[in-house]
Amino acid sequence: MMIYPIPSHDYEYELNKDLNFSAAHHIPDARAGKCERVHGHTYHVNITIAGDALDDLGFLVNFSALKKLIMDEFDHRLLNDHEAFRDIPPTSETLAKVIHDMVQSYIKTEQPNEVKCLQIILKETPTSYVVYRPKEKR
Ligand SMILES: Nc1nc2c(c(=O)[nH]1)N=C([C@H](O)[C@H](O)COP(=O)(O)OP(=O)(O)OP(=O)(O)O)CN2
Ligand SMILES: [Zn+2]
């Protein structure tokens, strides 16, 4: 089991959601070596959200809603076809930021309580992962 890096904050609540999705991608540049060819991964994502207030259900954010958001967008797709990767390849780094921005935009529009996505961990292979944290914490 992976031990996650922890973002520092002073919010009262912190939520973490793990999920997996399957997708294909390629990095269209010879410098990427074998990754220039289309290949697949079971991506593992860890989403960290924090806030001081819960909604009327007692949720910071619904775990299921977070999973659905990511699965609907990326599961069983070729990531290179996604509009977010029109100008930059779908690497672990770029995908982690895209997922962060999607989650932040979702909670801003759908959650009445003020919550923030503090960190995305994106694990592409058993030996490779990235951590994305937005600059400002609040
Ligand atoms: N900084 C990055 N480097 C690489 C990325 C990336 O997203 N960011 N991606 C790839 C490939 O897509 C590849 O799927 C993953 O590479 P790698 O970790 O080298 O995979 P291996 O299974 O071959 O690694 P082992 O060291 O044999 O476990 C490449 N680089
Ligand atoms: Zn890959």
Note the main attributes of this structure.
queuosine biosynthesis, 138 residues, metal-binding, 32% strand, 6-PTP_synth/QueD, Tetrahydropterin Synthase, Chain A, binds zinc ion, binds the ligand Nc1nc2c(c(=O)[nH]1)N=C([C@H](O)[C@H](O)COP(=O)(O)OP(=O)(O)OP(=O)(O)O)CN2, alpha+beta, 5-stranded mixed beta sheet, zinc, 6-carboxy-5,6,7,8-tetrahydropterin synthase, 5 strands
Describe this structure in words.
By secondary structure, this protein is of the alpha+beta class. The protein has one domain: Tetrahydropterin Synthase, Chain A, CATH 3.30.479.10. A five-stranded mixed sheet has the order 3-1-2-4-5. The mean pLDDT is 96. The structure holds ligand LPXRUNBV and zinc ion. Ligand LPXRUNBV binds next to α2 and β4. Zinc ion binds next to β2. Pfam families: PTPS (PF01242). Its cofactor is Zn(2+). Its EC number is 4.-.-.-.
Sheet having the most strands: 5 strands, mixed
Structural class: alpha+beta
Helix content: 10-25%
What binds here, in terms of ligands, is: the ligand Nc1nc2c(c(=O)[nH]1)N=C([C@H](O)[C@H](O)COP(=O)(O)OP(=O)(O)OP(=O)(O)O)CN2, zinc ion
Mean pLDDT figure:
96
List the domain count as a whole number.
Answer: 1
* The CATH class: Alpha Beta
The CATH topology turns out to be Tetrahydropterin Synthase, Chain A
Determine the CATH superfamily. Answer: 6-pyruvoyl tetrahydropterin synthase/QueD
So what's the overall shape?
elongated
The SSE string, one letter per element, is EEHEHEE
Number of helices: 2
- Uncertain segments are none
Number of E strands: 5
Kindly provide the radius of gyration, computed on alpha-carbon positions and rounded to a whole number of angstroms: 16 Å
Physical arrangement of strands within the biggest beta sheet:
3-1-2-4-5
Sheet-strand content, in percent, reads 25-35%
By CATH, the architecture is named 2-Layer Sandwich
Question: Could you tell me how far the N terminus lies from the C terminus, measured between alpha carbons in angstroms?
Answer: 30 Å
